[in-house]
User: Fold ABC transporter ATP-binding protein from Kaustia mangrovi.
Amino acid sequence: MLQVQGLTVAYGPVTAVRGVDIAVHAGEVVALLGANGAGKTSTLNGIVGLAPVTGGTIRFRDEDVTGLPTERLIRRRLTLCPEGRRVFTALTVEENLRLGGYTKGRGRAFDEAVADMYDLFPILAERRRQLAGTLSGGQQQMLAIARALMSGPELLCLDEPSLGLAPQIVEQVFELITTLRGRGVTILLVEQNVALSLDVVDRAYLLASGEVAGKGTAEELKASQLVEAAYLGLH
Ligand code: ATP
Assistant:
């Protein structure tokens, strides 16, 4: 579904990602793991058109989408749920969902998508008229994911969904990832919670200093020293 080859992302003189190759197949959940500053967010942002790609190619569903603006990628069903929850705090829950579903217009498809999100996240249905800024951190994270899902992505890029959440809520986020996979959403996940990630993903790539330092199935990575090495900068 996604083939990234030789991806390079640079912010002016700072090269954050260097020649990264990643493949994600339909139906998979794949993680990008690595220490702070390893280039995980820059890789995701490069894929979705939010960071400057200075080299490499990105193919999505057999088409070259390198350099396409984020908005066009969303219409092609490649959507990012960014780090830090970034919900519109001064808008209601439902207004946030509406913005996420703008590609669906205002007709039946939109209403169905909202109803589907309320099925998946009953707490959001209860709070539909509440301002997003008054939700708890965990509820805001659920809203951010629901908003991204409103565009009907085939590939959802999820950046650090468990960051800053209480342990119980973190578990709910990982359960949700499993639920989404059951619904046929393919997921590329950036996470700092390695142990929980390796319980829900099929495969993972380890990034270190902007390069792929290792990769494998969740089982292979659990059994190897590669993960520790990447986090300790020993690759
Ligand atoms: P974290 O988990 O801390 O977000 P990460 O693995 O996602 O880390 P990135 O955020 O992609 O890493 O950062 C990779 C490198 O690029 C770092 O050295 C960072 O300082 C640099 N960087 C990231 N964003 C920018 C930017 N907008 N301008 C300049 N340098 C940046």
Residues 2-86+154-232 form a domain with the Rossmann fold fold (CATH 3.40.50.300). The CA atoms of residues 102 and 151 lie 7 Å apart. The mean pLDDT is 91.
